[in-house]
TrEMBL record:
This is Ecotropic viral integration site 5 like. Residues 627-704 are annotated as: Disordered. Residues 101-286 form the Rab-GAP TBC domain. InterPro entries: Rab-GAP-TBC_dom, Rab-GAP_TBC_sf, Rab_GAP_TBC_domain. PANTHER family: ECOTROPIC VIRAL INTEGRATION SITE 5 LIKE, RAB GTPASE-ACTIVATING PROTEIN 1-LIKE. Gene3D superfamilies: putative rabgap domain of human tbc1 domain family member 14 like domains, Ypt/Rab-GAP domain of gyp1p, domain 1, Ypt/Rab-GAP domain of gyp1p, domain 3. It comes from Scleropages formosus. Pfam families: RabGAP-TBC. The chain crosses the membrane at residues 6-24. Keywords: Coiled coil, Membrane, Phosphoprotein, Transmembrane, Transmembrane helix. GO terms for molecular function: GTPase activator activity; small GTPase binding. Residues 346-408, 475-509, 538-622 form a coiled coil.
Amino acid sequence: SSKVTLNLQVVVSVFFFLSLYMFCPPLPLNPRLLEADSKSMRSMSGSRRNSGSSLVSSSSASSNLSHLEEDTWILWGRVVNEWEEWRRKKDKLLKEMIRKGIPHHFRAIVWQLLANATDMPVKNQYSELLKMSSPCEKLIRRDIARTYPEHDFFKGQDSLGQEVLFNVMKAYSLVDREVGYCQGSAFIVGLLLMQMPEEEAFCVFVRLMQEYRLRELFKPSMAELGLCIYQFEYLLQEQLPELNMHFRSQSFHTSMYASSWFLTLFLTFLPLPVATRVFDIFMYEGLEIIFRVGLAILLYNQTDLIQLDMEGMSQHFQKVIPHQFDSCPDKLILRAYQVKYNPKKMKKLRTENRLLKQRIETLEKVRSYTEEFVNGLQTQLEQSRLQEAELLGALKEMQDKVLNLEKRSNSLPDESNVAHLQEELRLVKLRELETLRCFKEMQDTVAELNQRWQHHTARGGGAGHWKESPKKNAINELQDKLMGARLREAQAQAELREVKLKALQLESQNQIHSKLVSRQQQESTALQERVQYLMVQNKGLQGQLSEMKRKQAEFECKSKEEVMAVRLREADSMAVMAELRQRIAELEIQKEEGRIQGQLNHSDSSQYITDLQEQIAELKNEDLCLTGRSPGERDYLSSDEDLLPSPLPASTLYTSLPAPCCPSPHLASEGSSDSDVEERDTNTDDTPPPQIFPGMVCTEGLDH
C-alpha cells in the first residue's frame, strides 16, 4: 500500500509540475550527475540522439535549461520510485543531488523518505492526541502568532496554518512530556507544514526529534546545545583565530548569535528559500551542515566584522548577513563545503566534553560531601558551644543558690547566739516581774492613802467642825499636812520607781543593741571571708573557661586542617583519575583508528593493538586502585563512546517508535562528509584539541 501511495504522489507531483513548472525559477543541476546514472541518461537522451544534430544547433539557452529541468524532475521521479536501490547503491550521487537542492514538489515525499517517516505507528495516534489536553497549550498559542508572521499560510489569528501548527505542537507535547514544547521548534514544524499535511509533518517531526539530536537540543537542560556551541567555538578558534580574538575582546559570545542557528536550523536567520536548501542537506547529513554554513558565513564576513564593535556586529548579523545569499543560495552551499570539517575531531570534542562534564560532576559531588562534612563539624561546634553556655548558666545558677543558702544560714542563730538570747529573755522576764511587783506596791500604797483620806474626811468633815476647840483644829491641820506629806512621798516614790524602770529598759535596750552590733560585726567578717572565697573560686572558674576556649580553638584548627587535607587528597585523586581516564580515552581512540585506518600491516597492527590493550589494562588497574573499585565491576571506560556515562539515560532519549530501516550515515557519527573530505581529514592531526574555555560545561545561559 505504501508503494502505491508513493507512486500516486509521484504521478500527482509530476502532473502538477508539467502545468506549473514554466512559472518556477530554473534549478541548475550538474550534468555530471546525469552521466553517473547510465540508465537515466540512456532513457532520456536516446530520443534526442536519434533526432539529429539540428535540435542541438537550433535550440536556445532557455530551451536547454527547460530540457535540463525536465530531466531533473524525471530523475527525481526515478529516485523516489527506486528509493531503496538508490540508498544502497547510489548513495554518493543522491548526496550530490540533495546538495544541489530537492525540487519543491518532491520535498514532501523525499523528506519523509530521508527521515524514514512514511509508515509510523504514531501516525494512527495523531487524531486521538488532538482530543487530549496538554499543559503547554497556552504557551503554544502565545508563540504561534510569532511563527512566520509574514508568510501567507500563517497570517491571521484564525488561519489554517496557525491551527494545524497548534495541532502538531500540541500532539508532540503529549507524546514527549519531558520536552513538551520549546521555543524554536515551531519554525521547524512550520516549514514541514508548508510542504506536507499535518499528519505527515507530525511523523517527520517526531523522527527528527528522535534521530537527528533535536530532542537533546530542546530538552530543558539544553546540554546538547551547549555541546554544539563548544564544538563551534573550537572550529572558530581553529579556522578563524583573528575573528575569534575580536569576538572575545568585544565580549561577543558565540551563544549570542549561534544559538538560534542550531535551535531553528537557520530558519529564523536566513531567508526561507536559502534556509530550505540548508534544511534539505540537514535531512540527509544532520547537524554537520549547520556547522559548515555557520563557519562559511563568518568566513565570508570576517573582514567586515573585525572592524565593528559589539553593537555594530549585532546590527550586521541582523540586517546585512541574512540577505547576502538571496540571489544565489548555491554560493553559500559551495562555501559551506569548502570549510574544513573533521568528524573525528568533533567526536573527540564530544568525548572531551563528556570527560569534563564527568569531572565537574565528580568535583561537585566531592564538594557537596566536603560541605556536608564541614557543616557537620560546624553543627557539632555549635552544639558544643551551646552545651558550654548551658553549663556556664547552670554553674552560675548553682552559685546563686549557694549564696542564698549561705545568707539564710548566716541569718539563723547558732548555739552561742541561742544561749545569749535565752539569757536576755530571762533578764527581761525578771525585769518584767520586778516592774509588776513595784506596780502592785504602788497600787497598795495608793489604796492605803485613799482609805486614810476617806477616813480623815469622814471624821473631820461634819457641819460643826468649826465649833470645835482650837486645839483640835490645830491637830486636824497637822494631820492634813502629814497626809499631804505622805501623798507627796508616795508620788516621789512612784516617780523614782518609774525612773528606775526607764533605766532598766534603757539598760536592756543597750544590751540588745550591743548584741546586735557584735552580731553584725561577726556577719561582716563572715561576708568578707565569703567574698574572698568567691573571688578565689571565680579566678579558678575563669582559668577553666580560658582553658576550655583554648581547647575549643585547638579543636577548630584541627577540624579545619582535617577538612583542608581531605579536600586536597580528594582533588589530587580526582585529578589523577581524570588524567588516567583521558589517557585511556586517547588509547582507545588510537586503537580504533589503528584498526579502521589500516595504516599498519596485519602483524604490526596486531602488535600495536596488543601494546595499547596492555597500556589500557595498566591504566585501568591504576584507576581501580584510586577509585577503590573491585576488578570484577564493570569498567565504563571500555570504549570511546562509554568514556563517560551519559547524563541523559538512553531510555529517556527516544519514545517507543520503530527504528529506521535505513539509518542515514550521518547518524552513526557526528555527521558525515563526502569521500574527498574524509581523505583530507585522514591526513590531519588527530591529537586532542586544546580546551578553549576550561570552565565551560555545555550549558549556555539560554531562556527555555
